[in-house]
Design brief:
This protein is 33% helix and 20% strand. The protein has 12 helices and 15 strands. The strands form 4 sheets. A 6-stranded mixed β-sheet has the order 3-6-7-8-9-10, sandwiched between helices. Strands 12-11-13-15-14 form a 5-stranded mixed β-sheet, with helices on both faces. The longest helix has 20 residues. It starts with a helix and ends with a helix.
């Protein structure tokens, strides 16, 4: 499993490179946007976009992982359909081929014969990139790849990626919107229980490079399995929040008024807002906020699996808000209702099968989730 982590770190950086390549020229980027329709549409948004970058990244990760770990074939799931429509109305199934020229020909067909763009993307997909991470390389984990599955969110916060607001992130600073909110998320879960055990987060657009024109990224990883709890992001362990301590709460700007009103007293009225579910959970991981709350079922397994594993490695978690509220209402205080990732929602179709339907609460400190749930009981 340490080898799998090292591979996921490398493919996440390849994915970040693809995301950056797809934003380099406006003319190219205009070709890469397709609107989702039907059961593949996220109902939270009036417009929810799928990009070729999303599909290419997802299929590249699937290809690279299955090549090294064939036992994972059929157990790598992603947000996107790998079918794309070109300007001629032709439906093209995106796959990564064994030979570069075959991948290039396929992408050229999607890109209406734009050979230059196809070559650029193909080079990014087929590059031999290795990330060196000493802590990851030294990790020992007695778990077989045959026991796990993978969730991929190729570009979380796609709307921010498309809009392309160039706002850099200073170390330890909160970023409410812009390219830094767009993340590559790769989460690993146990097939039998659905517990998240490993996560890789890559932030392709963290800061500008030395020229001031291109972008550099950063990555984070975490493992939580058995007695092993390791995370690449560490900071001094803070004491538990006291009952009257002010909390830092991050929400979606579209969160309903009842939730905002109920939580405002916990943070002296200073609620925070940010784009992207993955980024908001990353803010919890980094200690930039105490808790992320979402009352709607508008996130999915691919959004939460990777950052959930990092939070578990740090002693926190991601819980089903609806189940927590129900438990407290029935006198069962302290019930965490951690999300799992192996079973679809019964009676649902399309992406809704994998929705976190009860909403979520992401936290580092278990005392925080108790306060949040207590504030929301009977209010929503």
């Amino acid at each position: 499993m340490a080898e799998l982590l090292r591979l996921l770190l490398s493919v996440s950086e390849k994915a970040a490179n693809v995301a950056r390549v797809c934003r380099q020229e406006a003319a190219l980027f205009e070709l890469l946007v397709q609107e989702k329709t039907g059961v593949d549409k996220n109902k939270k948004f009036v417009q929810d976009f799928k990009t070729l970058a999303d599909v290419v990244i997802q299929e590249m990760i699937r290809h690279d992982v299955c090549t090294q770990f064939p036992e994972l074939t059929g157990f790598i799931h992603g947000e996107e359909s790998n079918k794309f429509e070109n300007g001629l109305g032709e439906s093209v199934t995106i796959t990564v081929c064994a030979k570069e020229e075959d991948t290039c020909d396929l992408l050229a067909k999607v890109l209406d014969g734009d050979q230059t763009a196809a070559v650029l993307l193909t080079k990014a997909i087929h590059q031999n990139l290795q990330i060196r991470d000493e802590a990851a390389e030294s990790l020992q984990l007695a778990l077989s790849p045959a026991d796990v599955g993978i969730w991929i969110d190729p570009i979380d916060a796609t709307s921010q990626y498309i809009e392309g607001k160039e706002q850099e992130v200073s170390d330890g600073r909160f970023c409410p919107s812009g390219l830094p909110c767009a993340l590559v998320l790769i989460g690993v879960y146990l097939r039998d229980t659905g517990e998240p055990v490993m996560g890789v987060i890559n932030q392709p657009f963290s800061h500008k490079d030395s020229t001031g024109k291109g972008w550099k990224g950063q990555h984070f990883w975490g493992v939580s399995y058995g007695e092993v709890n390791r995370c690449s992001f560490t900071y001094p362990k803070q004491s538990l929040k006291k009952k009257n301590d002010s909390l830092s709460v991050v929400l979606s700007s579209s969160e309903r008024r009842e939730v905002k009103d109920a939580l405002a007293p916990l943070c002296n009225g200073c609620l925070k807002y940010a784009s992207g579910a993955g980024y908001k959970i990353l803010c919890v991981i980094q200690g930039l906020v105490d808790v992320y709350v979402l009352s709607e079922g508008s996130t999915f397994k691919w959004d939460s699996c990777a950052p959930h594993a990092l939070l578990r490695a740090l002693g926190g978690g991601v819980s089903d808000l609806g189940e927590c509220l129900s438990a407290v209402s029935n006198g069962n205080k302290g019930f965490k209702a951690e999300l799992t990732y192996h079973q679809p929602q019964a009676g649902c179709q399309g992406v809704d099968r994998w929705a976190n339907r009860g909403g979520i609460v992401a936290y580092l400190d278990s005392a925080v989730i108790d306060r949040v749930v207590g504030a929301l009981v009977g209010k929503i």
